[in-house]
């Protein structure tokens, strides 16, 4: 077994400090296995934690209609 590795992806404006942190390890065959995905938005102290990519995508898809509605109302102003 190898120790856990981490990828950090920063996105958005610098002031928001948005990031996705992916903790992964390698199997004995050399494949990467994702252990945990943390989504931290707007300097959150307690991130949303997902076990799989599917959980993350389901969360993001559920938030998309709210985001689109908000952007449409801002454009109408």
Automatic annotation (TrEMBL):
Name of protein: Uncharacterized protein
């Amino acid at each position: 077994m190898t120790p856990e590795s981490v990828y950090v992806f920063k996105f958005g404006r610098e002031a928001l400090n948005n990031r996705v942190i992916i903790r992964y390890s390698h199997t004995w065959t050399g494949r990467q296995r994702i252990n945990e995905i943390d989504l931290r938005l707007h300097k959150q102290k307690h991130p949303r934690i997902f076990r799989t990519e599917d959980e993350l995508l389901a969360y993001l898809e559920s938030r998309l209609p709210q985001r689109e509605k908000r952007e449409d109302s801002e454009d109408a102003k």
